[in-house]
Every structure is written in C-alpha cells, then in structure tokens.
Design goal:
Layout: H1 4-20, H2 26-32, H3 39-51, E1 55-56, E2 65-66, H4 68-77, H5 85-97, H6 102-117, E3 121-124, E4 133-142, E5 145-152, E6 157-163, H7 170-184, H8 197-201, H9 205-219, E7 228-231, H10 236-239, H11 243-254, H12 256-263, E8 270-273, E9 285-293, E10 296-304, H13 310-328
Antiparallel strand pairs: 1-2, 3-7, 3-10, 4-5, 5-6, 8-9, 9-10
Helix pairs in contact: 1-3, 2-3, 5-13, 6-13, 7-9
C-alpha cells in the first residue's frame, strides 16, 4: 500500500491521463491535487513511483504516464464513482419499459451498455442448464437429416442437426416430434429425458430409432455453449488510436471462445488489465459483472483500452447487471 501522498499523486496522474491521453507533468499534478506541496516535491515522488513500476516517462522532457500496475492500483484502492442521474435514469427507463424474451433482452442490453459507456460491450447469456423444456420442434432438411430445436421455458432455443441412420417420412417425423415432446416437456435441461416404455414399445422400428436419436440430441442440449451478444463495435476506431490496435481488439471480440474465457470469472465485479488478460500485445482492459437468471448466471462486460474511465465503467457495469437481474427475475 502506497503512503497517502504518493497515492494521491498516482490518483491525480491516472485520472488526468485518462482524461487527456497526454503525459502528465509534476506542475499539473501540483495544481490539480490537494497536497499543497511544490512541483519539485512531486517530481521526487514521481521518481519513486517510477522506480516502483507505477509510471514511466516517455522521454526526458515529458511528464509521466501510468503503467498497467498503476491502473491496477487505482482500481483496487479507489472506489467507483456515482453515475450521473441522467445515465441512471436512462438505464432504469430501459429496463422498466422493455418487454422482450431473454435472447432479445440480452442483445438489447449489450447495445444499451455500449451506448452508456461509449465502449464496446459484451453480454454473455446464462447457461440453459436447469431451465425446463417448453417445447421440441423437428424440421426436415433432407429425408435423413433433421433440425432439432429445444425451446426452454425462457424462450431460448438450442438447435442442432441430426443425421438419421435411415430416412423418415413427414408423417413419421411428426410422430417422432409428438413422442419426444411428450417425454421432454417439463424436464430440466441437463436431466435425462425418457420415453414411456409402453409408448416406445408401440412405435414402429423406424420411428423408435429416430425418437431415440432425437432424445440423445435433447439430452445433449446441456452441452451447448452460452450465447454472446456484442454491442458498440462501430466505436472501435474512435477508442483505439492506431489501426493495428483496432484490428487486434476486433479479433478478440469476434472470437466467441476467447470472450467466454475472458469473462469466465468468479461471481461479482472483475477488472482485468493488460497482461492479466489471456491475449498478448493488446492495449486492452475488461470490466465485467455477474447477473443471476434463475438457477444460472451470466455476465455483462465492457472492453476498452487501459486508459478507460474505470470508475465510471465499473459503476455502469454494476448498475446494468443489477437492473438486468431484476428484470429477468420479475
């Protein structure tokens, strides 16, 4: 833990650099802080902070800029700011008025968070495991290939293609759908679905084999990945100054597995900065938070450069997480 004076100097430097993007001089820190000490004293403290790895000096005549360690210290020791009342009202109004099924709600939430923070945002849907099955639909793609759609109680759809060992007719597929639906409706995703033995025995061999194959697909619905919704990608070019940075961040955003890895953290608010992320050579930080949805949970997150306004972004993520959770649980 830094002593009070150095902590205040570091706070002032980080916040001014976030605001301007320019190296911060000792004179500027003296004017903005409440320390009441000379610029010379602040220069000495900055030299000590540089030795400790919190700041760097781009060149001899320049001021200092914060390192990833400075941002980490700043996040860990200084609480979030309060959102402006207009921003709070905007978030509350959105969730008070929106009437959408879960998938559309999460997609709209990603756009809301991007709009509020002016940074790319991500919403990861909760796992479907534990949700009850509301319906099962089967669609012929070819005589031997069908599209299976498992619909959860929250309106989420898990779909998969299934190749049967033998072709089935439209009438046979209709019977398969009826048999599987009767067995599956009300069962929680992740639990085993079983056809009534007497009903199964009465089926023709082709319908029985097709029904068994579809049941295996339904049982496997629990292994489906979580949906990821990204908002605000059009803001990338205005947030990262160089084209290579934009391209690297875009690569991360477009890779669903990487996004899930970045946001797969313990419950609560998480802030990952620079090398703490599972990506290399990217000027990036991620703030994310958890929301509960019944028996499962999802995450919302904001992606920005290390020079993001952490206090405001953390507040926005936490506010949106709370409102989204409350809306889902209504």
């Amino acid at each position: 833990m830094l002593e009070d004076r150095r902590q205040e100097i570091l706070r002032t430097l980080v916040e001014e650099y976030i605001k301007t993007g320019e190296p911060v001089s000792s004179r500027t820190i003296a004017e903005l802080s409440n320390l009441g000490v000379s610029a010379a004293t602040i220069r000495n403290e900055l030299a000590a902070l540089e030795d400790d790895g919190y700041v760097v000096q781009p060149h001899t005549s320049a001021g200092r800029v914060p390192t990833a360690s400075a941002y980490r210290y700043y996040v860990d020791h200084l609480g979030p700011s309060r959102l402006r009342s207009a921003t709070q009202a905007k978030i509350a109004s959105f969730f008070d008025s929106v009437q959408l099924e879960l998938t559309k709600l999460l997609k709209a939430t990603s756009r809301l968070l991007a709009d509020v923070t002016q940074l790319p945002s991500v919403v990861v849907a909760p796992s479907v495991v534990g949700e009850r099955i509301r319906d099962v639909h089967l669609v012929h793609l070819t005589p031997e290939v069908i599209l299976t759609m498992v619909i959860s109680e929250n309106g989420r759809v898990v779909q998969d293609k299934l190749r049967l060992d033998a072709p089935v007719s439209a009438d046979e597929l209709e019977e398969v759908e009826e048999v599987v639906t009767q067995a599956a409706v009300g069962v929680r995703i992740g639990s085993k679905v079983e056809i009534d033995p007497k009903r199964r025995e009465a089926l023709t061999s082709r319908v029985r084999e097709a029904s068994d194959a579809v049941i295996r697909v339904v049982d496997n619905a629990a292994a489906s990945g979580s949906d990821v919704f990204v908002g605000g990608t059009q803001q990338l070019a205005s947030v990262w100054e160089d084209l290579s940075g934009v391209q690297r961040v875009l690569e991360v955003v477009e890779r669903e597995a990487m996004i899930l890895n970045i946001l797969a953290r313990a419950p609560g608010t998480s802030v990952l900065i620079g090398a703490e992320l599972p990506v290399t050579d990217v000027d990036m930080a991620v703030v994310s938070g958890t929301y509960e949805a019944g028996t499962a949970s999802g995450r919302v997150g904001v992606i920005g450069p290390m020079r993001m306004n952490y206090r405001r972004v953390i507040s926005a993520v936490e506010e949106v997480s709370r409102e989204l959770e409350a809306r889902i649980q209504q």
